[in-house]
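Quick one, T. Sequence first:
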Amino acid sequence: QVQLVESGGGLVQAGGSLRLSCAASGRIFSIDRMGWYRQGPGNERDLVATITSGGSTNYADSVKGRFTISRDNAKNMVYLQMNSLKPDDTAVYYCNARIRGSSLYYQYWGQGTQVTVSS
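Structure tokens:
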């Protein structure tokens, strides 16, 4: 069974920084794309950033220049460095990964970690 576990959320003032981490564990043969999504109150779950196994990244326009996604392939981990945080960044942040356990790739989600930015 594959699990994704996020950590690093919390309460921060506007302009501050947080670093989210996500660890993938279980029966993992390979991991393709990893990413972060977020869901604010009353909103849909939206893409924040993704990174391929080769290191190519993609960001939502709202976080470009402020957030940085990275990964450690040896540790099966993905990170999200969030700087210059704004109250609009308040949301539950979810880790996502496309993981091959045996012959097929499946999408997996973490349980989410709350990020709250106060003004």
